[in-house]
Design goal:
The structure holds 2 protein chains of 2 kinds. By secondary structure, chain A is an all-alpha fold. In chain A, about 75% of the residues lie in helices and about 0% in strands. Chain B has 3 helices and no strands. By secondary structure, chain B is mainly α. Classes of the chains: A mainly alpha, B mainly alpha.
Chain lengths: ~575, ~110
């Protein structure tokens, strides 16, 4: 009945507009094959953003509780929808001009442009989407915990948070440089405002200013790199670019373009030369925003970076790129990032700032996974794809551990700041006397960040190192060097994590408050204590997340029809040019 | 006949001027203007190259090859406008606290 009505309507429309039959067939195919349901999670968030704004202007409905409820549903429902598609078939999506939605999946080619896609819905994208949504949910808890956030502007904050999450979800499944650029800007613009949220606060506005300026410059550099790539390959689809670059004989230009694009991703991941914004923005932002940026934003950056290097190194193998060798390039960046992060963290007097540098160091550890992906891509074929997947899943697995322990640590910082109004190291002195359980919770989370055995952080790091070893055995000695540097760095990081632990357990606190118990709200226990308990429990049951992390596989398109470089046909050009000038 | 080399040379010059401005300008508003120059350099390259690719022989992805550059430029322009909007709002917030728009005076957060 419904289908008949749809068909009649389609036929009538066709009569009016007179578009080619194929587009309607494609449209009907989409409705029939339920393609839109792949994009439904994003649509839910779009609607929820508007809904939060509407609730915020309604006199009757406007209350923090209602706003939080809408945001909660808006984040939980898409996560469940994606989990419903978990392990299903991957899908490529190309909403093209002329057709409302052309698309193809690998089995049945329906699309008119089988080689060029905007979005892909594969296991990798699914994993990172659920991850980002889960971080958003935890951030809601952090906002609830934060006494500093003005309740009056909660609606705006939640709208921006949802917008940022939407940008990250799109980024996780973007396979086209235009889509990548737009989603990076989407999440950036929302997070600039989130960082500046305490607009009467000097630190907040200054942190946001630096964040914004760095972001704008790095995205400027990135689109210049994109324009070079487009100039060389004539397409914006990253898989096609990878295959066509192998036919371009200009290593210097390729290296420059790829490095410039990496600047844009590196800014999001806060890796070494592009990390300067991170400590300032993290210190100035409200703590929930800091925690959200340090986890979700970084994860989204790694998702797109891994997809990008996989596409770039899988097809244009080492010989085409003598200057930029991805494995060494990523390994060197990783080594520099973790060293800079750890060495600078030592001197920080502010805990949020210290955790910011520690998060930079963690970005360095995560680069081990990215380097393994690059190695797998260069090896190529079945064996290479397997190694690349090992690297990708190790990164995904470590991000889960990192999410738990980092959110937990920031929750403790938030609890202490609620009570004392400060977030410097001295505020933690004598915490053990004031609230022993909270001190133990923080100690567990810090040990997990350090990666010491009875914690989830250890398993995460172990898997990352095992992935690195696999790449080293596959003939990449530089991976061994990177692992040694990472091990040394872990030792260095002992210093600043243990400095905080010593402050909490040994140093006596300020005389005025030393014996006053520090009261923690239920939300505080749920956030901080919950993540500490999970950190310990998942050391035993860590295998629970191994399965989902292994599902985080990239869907590759090894042999593309349009991979051959378009040849310059002189006569044809003349004709085309003539037509162009007339029109 | 528009040579891609000329396009890229012009874009490179524009980009360098913009980058120099970003690195050397002390005033935040001028800094934003230099930033626009960097974005426009990429725009010039994208549009120019799209023209070059449009002259190539027709393949299955002819449309996307020839027009995605121009479309990208439109997107960059829209996003740049949004970015400047947010940027100016933040600069105004900083200005209200400090009564200056000199970049060097944003020194609250250091170490």
């Amino acid at each position: 009945m419904l289908l008949e009505a749809a068909e009649t309507a389609t036929n009538a429309l066709q009569g009016v507009v007179g578009l080619p039959q194929e587009s309607y067939r494609a449209l009907a195919g989409i409705i029939g094959n339920d393609t839109l349901s792949y994009f439904a999670p994003e649509l839910v968030i779009c609607v929820a953003m508007l809904l939060v704004l509407l609730v915020d202007v309604s006199d009757k409905l406007r209350s923090p509780r209602n706003l939080m409820l809408v945001a909660l549903v808006a984040l939980a429902a898409p996560a469940l929808m994606i989990l419903g598609k978990w392990g299903g078939e991957a899908l490529f999506f190309y909403p093209a001009w002329g057709n409302l939605a052309q698309y193809s999946n690998l089995e049945g080619h329906i699309s008119l442009q089988p080689d060029s896609h905007m979005l892909v819905f594969d296991g990798f994208a699914n994993f990172f989407k659920v991850f980002v949504l889960a971080s958003g949910l935890i951030t809601l808890g952090m906002i609830h915990l934060d006494k500093g956030t003005p309740r009056r502007s909660l609606g705006e904050m939640l709208t921006l948070l949802l917008g940022s999450v939407l940008g990250m979800m799109l980024l996780a499944s973007a396979t086209n440089l235009l889509m990548i650029y737009l989603s990076i800007e989407f999440m950036s613009l929302a997070s600039f405002i989130l960082v500046a949220f305490k607009r009467r606060d000097r630190k907040g506005t200054e942190g946001a200013l630096k964040y914004m300026l760095f972001g704008a410059v790095s995205s400027g550099v990135m689109i210049y790199g994109i324009s070079l790539l487009y100039g060389m390959a004539g397409t914006l689809d990253i898989a096609l670019i990878g295959q066509r670059l192998a036919q371009v004989n200009d290593p210097l230009a390729i290296a420059m373009a790829l490095m410039m694009v990496t600047v844009g991703f590196g800014y999001k991941m806060s890796i070494a030369p592009m990390h300067f914004w991170a400590p300032d923005a993290y210190e100035g932002a409200p703590t929930p925003v800091t925690a959200f940026l340090s986890v979700a934003s970084k994860a989204a950056g790694f998702a797109v970076f891994i997809r990008f290097i996989d596409a770039m190194s899988a097809q244009s193998t080492g010989n085409a790129l003598p200057i930029i060798n991805w494995v060494s390039f990523v390994a060197v960046i990783g080594a520099v990032t973790m060293t800079v992060g750890n060495l600078t963290a030592i001197w920080q007097p502010n805990v949020k700032r210290m955790l910011a540098y520690s998060s930079i160091a963690h970005a360095g550890y995560l680069m081990i996974g990215a380097a393994v992906v690059a190695a797998g891509g260069e090896i190529g074929g079945e064996a290479g794809a397997r190694i690349a997947d090992v690297g990708g899943s190790a990164t995904a697995f470590y991000l889960v551990a990192y999410c738990l322990m980092n959110f937990g640590a920031f929750a403790v910082v938030q609890v202490v700041a609620n009570e004392t109004g400060r977030d410097d190291m001295n505020a933690f002195d004598g915490l053990f006397k004031r609230n022993p359980t909270l001190a133990v919770v923080m100690a567990i989370l810090l040990l997990s960040l350090l990666g010491i055995p009875p914690t989830f952080g250890f398993i995460g790091k172990a898997r990352l190192f095992m992935a690195g070893l696999e790449a080293a055995q596959a003939g990449y000695p530089i991976m061994t060097v990177l692992l040694v540097i990472a091990a040394v760095n872990t030792t260095v990081s002992c210093y600043y994590y243990f400095r905080l632990i010593r402050g909490m357990f040994i140093t006596p606190g300020e005389a005025a408050t030393a014996n006053r118990p520090l009261i923690v709200s239920n939300t505080g226990w749920l956030m901080a204590g919950g993540s500490a308990v999970l950190t310990l429990a998942l050391f035993v049951a860590g295998s629970f997340f191994i399965g989902p992390a292994d599902e985080a596989r990239l869907k590759r398109r090894p042999h593309l029809e349009g991979a051959a470089m378009p040849q310059h046909d002189q006569g044809h050009v003349e004709v085309k040019r003539g037509d162009g000038s007339k029109g | 006949m528009l040579e891609p080399k000329i396009v890229f040379a012009l874009a490179a010059v524009l980009f360098s001027v913009g980058l120099y401005g970003v690195l050397s300008r002390g005033n935040l508003v001028l800094l934003l203007m230099s930033l626009e120059l960097m974005l426009n350099a990429a725009n010039v390259a994208l549009v120019g190259v799209a023209r070059y690719w449009a002259g190539m022989g027709g393949a299955a992805d002819d449309f996307s090859r020839a027009h995605s550059g121009q479309f990208f430029t439109l997107m960059v322009m829209a996003v740049a406008a949004a970015e400047v909007g947010v940027g100016l709002a933040i600069i105004v917030a900083v200005f209200r606290r400090k009564h200056t728009s000199a970049a060097d005076l944003a020194t609250e957060l250091k170490h």
